[in-house]
Amino acid sequence: MDSDARLSADIGGTFTDIVLDARGKRLTRKVLTTPHAPEEGVLEGITLVLADAGLTLSDINMFVHGTTLATNAIIERRGARTALVATEGFRDVLAIGTESRFDQYDIMLQKPQPLVPRDLRFTLRERMDARGGVQIAPDDEQIRQLGLQLAAAGVESVAVAFLHAYANPTHELRVRDILTDVLPPGVTLSLSCEVCPQVREYERTSTTVANAYVQPLMAGYLARLDQALKARHFAGTLYLVTSSGGLTSLETARTFPVRLVESGPAGGAIFAARISECLHEERVLSFDMGGTTAKICLIERNEPAQSRIFEVDRTARFLKGSGLPLCIPVIEMIEIGAGGGSIARLDAMKRVTVGPESASSVPGPAAYGRGGARPTVTDADVMLGLLRPEGFAGGSLTLQPALSARALSDAIGTELSLSAEMAAHAVYEIVCESMASAARVHAAERGALLSRHTMVAFGGAAPLHAARVAEKLGVRRLVIPNSAGVGSAVGFLTAPVSYEIARSHHTRVDEHTDYAAISALLSDMEEAARSMVQTGAGSAPLVKRAAAFMRYVGQGHEIMVELPDRPLCQTDARGLREAFTQEYARQFARSIPNAPIEVLNWSVRISTIPAPPVPFIPAGEKIALSPLEIRRFFDGGSNGWVDLPVYDRTGAPSGAFVPGPAIIVEKETTTYVSARFDAQIDGSGNIIMNQKDAA
């Protein structure tokens, strides 16, 4: 086994990306995702990339895997038949939610359907108070009878979420002990005291239910993948990427699969953060566009924005509160259904719209020639001349422009009296505007000014659209990094092994607080987090980050404040208040003098220390490149064809200069340099694009 040989795999909605780092080289492969059995696509890609390197799986020391399987299962409602067991009187917490309306003026407002239908929601007579005191103990016989009901209902997974279980888990633990003996083998149980031991009943229940809903599916998939790898003599360590951008063990992923819902996009954010560090950029806009979705993430001081809550399956694309809340550590980003495979159509008012429905890998865009008849973004790119039909996706596909033209004409062009080319231009403009709108919303929520950011674009489709999106946002500098087409999979290989635990413990921040009790709580959390990390970390040094989630008394939401790496004491009250006031003022441009402050939740994260990145080498003097060919490109602005030079990125020297408009091709993706930008290859092989008036 080669101690330096590492593999990573990112399963997307259309393509599965494989990256191999071995013997000082990086090799990549793209294969079509196999939705019926995702492990087949992974194994196919692994076989191809290992053959390229002359290695076998027995030579691989580490395999890192990220997937959107859990997210897609929730969105498409393909999870297990799940039951909820709640406290008596709280059967409908999933339907009631917080009683808020994400759009108070929409009389046709639609909320996402709960993952558990009402006939599979059960209750038990039990009650715990907010301080963990037992008010009503559950009856063992009632629990057994409930178990028989669950078995008769044919449930595959059970979520248990009792009132105030975060303060005292004994009732949930007792239910698990009894149900384990009563339920048929193979039925999984998820307890809120383990999945999400935090206040806010609806969010805690929603998270626990989501974990239960995807657990059988994820456990089955991970078991099949693990067995297949071992059958091919893989003896290294298998890691899964969590939504917070850390690596976790196979067993932890099986127990808490809800933490994997954003694992693929998280890899992209890690990749962009690494690029920002190598570039010494303080403010970066990460733009990740693959085959199914586009992800936007703000990165400041080399750290992607983090959040404690994430919404999946939103019924309104940009409105908070319109999805199912999941209380998990997650990299904060905005994700929309705008990828290469996103389907274009006309709405009821005959406006061109794109996504969120995707052609996926089966049947795929019309140009794939695999039975798809509806036009996609990829078909528009083909029709415009941005994509060369031969050698698409690393040579795995040959595109068919005639099929793209037919699909665009049938769905859009004929109805609007447009040529196939002008229909393609409309699709291109709409999808770029959708992504720009998503970036504006994300920036507004974070109080960021995008014109001050450098865009890092990656994913198979992003380099084709990044320049136009940047024009719409006022971004003047773009970076298309090396291995951009498989950026998320590259990011996986730089992620630390980590685990974060959060627990609720409400207290005021003053000199009368029992800081000894809080320190004991943090110590227990640290021990639990270390036990999750230690196996994968081995002898690697670990770092701890503890945080308090604080607010002014009476507010509804908290902000994170980091804690010192030592036990807390009474004299820390002043420091905590000052740290909170500074962070509050940074986020909201004001503070509230002398207002009392409280802490609702505490968290501890244990992680390994990633290796420091190697800074990128500047480009130096400009060097003219000779084009590979001249390609015909349809310019929608002038409604005519123009000639664009096409350059090969592979082997281009440092300083190679490409004036826009132009196309730069490579194995994994294609970059479009618009007329407003010039591009140059730096000393590390990255494409740096600057607006011409800013050069």
From TrEMBL:
GO biological process terms, semicolon-separated: glutathione metabolic process
Ranges for domain Acetophenone carboxylase-like C-terminal: 526-683
Coiled-coil annotated spans: none
Source species, domain of life: Bacteria
InterPro entries: ACX-like_C, Hydant_A_N, Hydantoinase_A, Oxoprolinase-like
Signal sequence coordinates: none
Start and end residues of each Hydantoinase/oxoprolinase N-terminal domain: 8-182
UniProt GO MF annotations: 5-oxoprolinase (ATP-hydrolyzing) activity
All copies of domain Hydantoinase A/oxoprolinase, residue ranges: 204-499
Pfam families, per the entry: Hydant_A_C, Hydant_A_N, Hydantoinase_A
Gene Ontology CC, one term: cytosol
Name this polypeptide is given: N-methylhydantoinase A
Organism: Komagataeibacter intermedius AF2
